[in-house]
Each structure stands twice: as structure tokens, then as C-alpha cells.
Design a protein that fits this description.
Two copies of one chain form a homodimer.
Chain A: H1 15-24, H2 29-37, E1 41-42, H3 43-49, H4 55-67, E2 71-76, E3 82-87, H5 89-92, H6 95-108
Antiparallel strand pairs in A: 1-3, 2-3
Chain A binds a DNA duplex through helix 3 and helix 4.
Pfam families (chains A, B): HxlR (PF01638)
Keywords (chains A, B): DNA-binding, Transcription, Transcription regulation
Region (Disordered) (chains A, B): 112-132
DNA sequence: GCACATAGTATCAAAAAGGGTACTGCAATG
DNA sequence: CATTGCAGTACCCTTTTTGATACTATGTGC
């Protein structure tokens, strides 16, 4: 994220982890990056890839990604505007992360946004807060 | 994981990425998970690991992680309360992601939360928006 | 003339997310 | 007796993020 919303780094070992996700959180960023892994895309192409993203949001996220140096934006001075977005080398270096994320999601999330149910061992009351 | 099983589903491929990220975003979640990778911790231990986290926030994030099945919470009915947090199997399966994140952060972030500067080739005006 | 497509902006609003501080109950410690 | 530590809660507030819509400019196609 462009504005270090994620904490001030006093640098416990988790810092770099946090910093890294800080750059790819945001509702659409990771997805945008993921799509860009496959190649350069134009604004409306991304829009069509990611249903439900409004132009405002897309611009927003793309700008932040650009500001963070993960994405490159190339404008063609044509009459029907043409703007291409692609990963920068830095963005491309994010590939392992994105793949790890996707791999995890594919195997642990039921494609509906929630983690798969882990069958509880033999709990009578799985939802209890275990209050003493 | 290249193809596992095709989710015969119209969700764009980025979905699982987004879902995965959705579970570990939040200002402190990834750091908490990261610390828990090393082993079980008690509430105040985590607090001490992550400077600047307020109890409210910590509870908050831990509860969300618990709700998402990534973290397990174990309460001991002792008099000075004792609560242990540890990764669930699902949370542990996040390890590759967390490590990828950390690896990326370590090599691409200057420990101050910003991506390392990529030395610009020979640009006189690095900040231009390239407006058509 | 009119609509369409491109790549966005502008303007408004609502909802999350994050944050601070004070406070709880109880036992052991000093 | 007062204090400390544990594991949080309660309350209230600010900031950030997300969102829908409508609107811009321009050239092409009908």
C-alpha cells in the first residue's frame, strides 16, 4: 500500500512479512497482480477479468501498485486511449508469493471464500469460546 | 501446484489468491501467524513480540484468525488466566505462504516498509504520469 | 446526429478497520 | 494493604477503504 498503513517497523522478525503483505493487500491488488503474471493487460481487460471491480477501485489499486513499483503503466498517445499495465521486475519477483497464495487458496479454500471445514475431532460444542 | 483439480467454476483464477489474502490481511495477522510458526504463545507473549499492538487489536486479530480456523485457542482454567495460542493444522499449512512473504520482504524491502528503490535508468522526470 | 468504446475522474456516501484508554477479577508478591 | 500480572472488555473515536453513479474527451461506426 502506498501509505505505510502497516505498522512502524520496530523490526521483530515478522516485519518483512508484514511489509510484504502490506504491498499486496487491498481488496483487489493480489488479484490484479495475479492476472498480470500472465502478461500485459489493458485497463478494461483487467476490468473484465475481475468482475465487480469498479473503474474507480481499479484505478486506485493500480495506482498504488504503480507507486509501490510493482506495476508499470504505459500510455499510448492514441485516440481511443490505450494504456497497458504490466508487472515490473519487482512485481514479477512477487511471483512465488502469489503462487504460494494461490496454491494455498486452491487447496484450502472451498472457492467460496471461506476455509474448508476442518472436521472437528469429537467436540460436542465446536463453537464454544472455552470460557473457563 | 499446477492444476490439482479444476474447479469447474466460473470464478476467475485470481479468486483463491484473493481469498487466501483475505485471511491474512489485517494489520497484524500475518505477523501473529509468523510468530506462531515458532510455537505456541500466550497472549501477553505475543503482545511482547509485537510491539505497538494494543490488547484490543490483538484480541481482535486473534479472534478473526481463530474464526477462520488458522489459530487455536486453549484456555487453562487457572487463576492467573492462561491462554495459549497455536497454529491449527490449517494455519500451519500457511507456512509456505508466510515464508514466501518473508523471503520476498527480506530481499525486496529495505526494512522500513518500502520497496527498495529501483535505480531508474536515466529518467529526468521519474514521477511523470505519462499523460497522453 | 447518435451511440459506442477507451481510460479514466468527480462527487458523494457508507462501511470497515484501526486505535487509545480505562477497567474487570483474582492470586501471588512485597 | 497495595501492586503487579494475566487475558482480555467496554466505550468511543478517527482514519482508511470501498462503493455507486455520473461524467469527461475523442475517434469510429451506423
Amino acid at each position: 500500500m502506498a501509505k505505510a498503513r502497516h505498522s512502524r517497523f520496530d523490526c521483530s522478525p515478522g516485519c518483512s512479512v508484514e511489509a510484504a503483505i502490506g504491498l499486496i493487500d487491498g481488496k483487489w491488488k493480489s488479484v490484479i497482480l495475479f492476472h498480470l503474471l500472465s502478461g500485459t493487460l489493458r485497463f478494461n481487460e483487467i476490468r473484465r477479468h475481475i468482475v465487480n471491480v469498479t473503474p474507480r477501485m481499479l484505478t486506485n489499486q493500480l495506482r498504488e501498485l504503480e507507486d509501490d513499483g510493482l506495476v508499470e503503466r504505459k500510455v499510448y498517445a492514441q485516440v481511443p486511449p490505450k494504456v497497458e499495465y504490466s508487472l515490473s521486475p519487482l512485481g514479477r519477483s512477487m511471483q512465488p508469493v502469489l503462487h504460494a497464495l494461490k496454491a494455498w487458496g486452491d487447496s484450502n479454500i472451498g472457492l467460496y471464500g471461506k476455509p474448508k471445514e476442518v472436521p472437528p475431532p469429537q467436540q460436542a460444542d465446536p463453537g464454544e469460546r472455552t470460557g473457563a
